[in-house]
Design brief:
- By secondary structure, the chain is mainly beta.
- About 5% of the residues lie in helices and about 35% in strands.
- The chain contains 2 helices and 14 strands; from the N terminus they run H-H-E-E-E-E-E-E-E-E-E-E-E-E-E-E.
- A hairpin with a 5-residue loop joins strand 12 and strand 13.
- The termini are far apart.
């Protein structure tokens, strides 16, 4: 838009307001959001104001300009609300795809489910593989990815889903891994026998241990591993010489 200084017939036309390709969009606005090839009559690329914005939010490019919105921002400058629907706290075998997908639900600030909303996924701690790393929500406001665990035994990972643009971003984190640590045994009892031998019993609360390490204190009061017993064992007899009875 031009303006005229008081008492003058000279019209000021600021370069920032030029629209040399006559599409209703200022040249500098086009270049800012779409790159240097846009925003001039002789440019390599041309925009049409009535085309839908690449953000996929249902607005045209011209409407984004008129409303002061980033045409690449689906969320229109508002932070979405993300929630985990499924797939959190999963553990699987090394280098194996987890059985449940990691599923995120996206809503606006009013609680409405958002369709075709973009969400980025990234491994922010640990290792593994994601597929895909970007997605858009379906008609139920949900988007999902798969996760393949690290080949390293016992590796834990964090997968973060992020939506929105800075400073209006929202995120949620999934905690996954390739092996859930065994649940510690409970109800441990220790009986010191007259001959110096020891009987120990316990309740086995896990189904993924490889064995049970047996420890006794040494002469210096430090814990010392004297041997182990197989998985699913619930008792052990320790000989007076601190060896495990076979």
């Amino acid at each position: 838009m031009g303006s005229r200084p008081p008492g003058s017939n000279t019209v000021l036309l600021r370069a920032a307001e030029l629209d040399t390709d006559h599409n209703g969009l200022p040249d500098d606005w086009e270049r800012f959001y779409f790159g240097s090839g846009y925003g001039s009559a002789g440019g390599e690329q041309h925009l049409h104001g009535n085309d839908l914005a690449p953000a996929g939010n249902g607005l045209t490019i011209l409407q984004c300009y008129q409303q002061g919105l980033d045409p690449n921002d689906y969320y229109k400058g508002q932070a979405p609300v993300l929630g985990i629907v499924g797939g959190d706290s999963q553990f699987g075998a090394p280098n194996t795809q987890l059985p449940q997908a990691l599923v995120v639900e996206v809503r606006d600030q009013a609680g409405n489910l958002l369709h075709s909303a973009p969400v980025n996924f990234a491994i922010t701690a640990g290792d593994g593989q994601l597929f895909p790393s970007f997605g858009r929500t379906d008609g139920n406001g949900r988007v999902s990815v798969t996760f393949t665990t690290s080949p390293d035994i016992g590796a834990a990972s964090v997968v973060t889903a992020t939506a929105g643009s800075i400073p209006h971003q929202a995120s949620v984190a999934f905690h996954v891994g390739n092996q859930q640590p065994p649940t510690p045994p409970s109800g441990v009892t220790v009986v010191q026998n007259a001959d110096g031998s020891i009987d120990m019993t316990w309740a086995d609360n896990s189904d993924n241990e490889t064995d049970f390490a047996i420890q006794l204190r040494n002469a210096f009061g430090e814990w010392e591993t004297i041997g182990s017993v197989p998985a699913n064992t619930t008792s052990v007899h320790i000989n007076p010489d601190r060896t495990i009875a076979q």
